[in-house]
Amino acid sequence: MTRYEFLVASVENAGTDCLVWPYKTYGGKYARFRRNNANLTAHVVALEMTTPRPAGKVCSIKGDWVPGDELDAAHGPCHNRLCYNPRHLSWKTRAENIADKKRDGTHTAGESHHASTIPQWKVDGVLAEYKGKQKTGRKTESNTGPTQVELADKYGLSQTHVSRILNGQMRSAA
Known about the structure:
Elements: H1 3-12, E1 32-35, E2 38-41, H2 42-50, E3 56-58, E4 65-67, E5 72-75, E6 89-92, H3 94-104, H4 120-129, E7 133-136, E8 139-142, H5 148-155, H6 159-166
Antiparallel strand pairs: 1-2, 3-4, 5-6, 7-8
């Protein structure tokens, strides 16, 4: 029995409990398999089998129209990345899916993100100490706070990292 056949058989007999993928997960994240030379994600395939992908929807957060091919198969009550029970899944916009993850504490951002290399205490320190330039009337004057280079030296970062933190490109304040 192929993994796809296994998925089809188990989805057809799905109850209310999680259906946990018993095969390799490729990085420990989501249940994945190959079919017809394509990489597929089990929870997306399971949801497409039972609830066809809509043409699109209006995002409940941003209020804009999102085409169906940009919708996520979002996990519901179980928040188990290895679960592919379609009863636990729904079609959501990326913003809605991220909002759910933040609400439920399963969103990996900042220091908990797998690619994070800078501890949160360094980000907080840079944001707290940098004063930048201040406008006084028509002039823009530097204040007496540390420069980006000084903060980079203090926290063992590059000036580019400090600049990205201050501009919100790397990590912003929570």
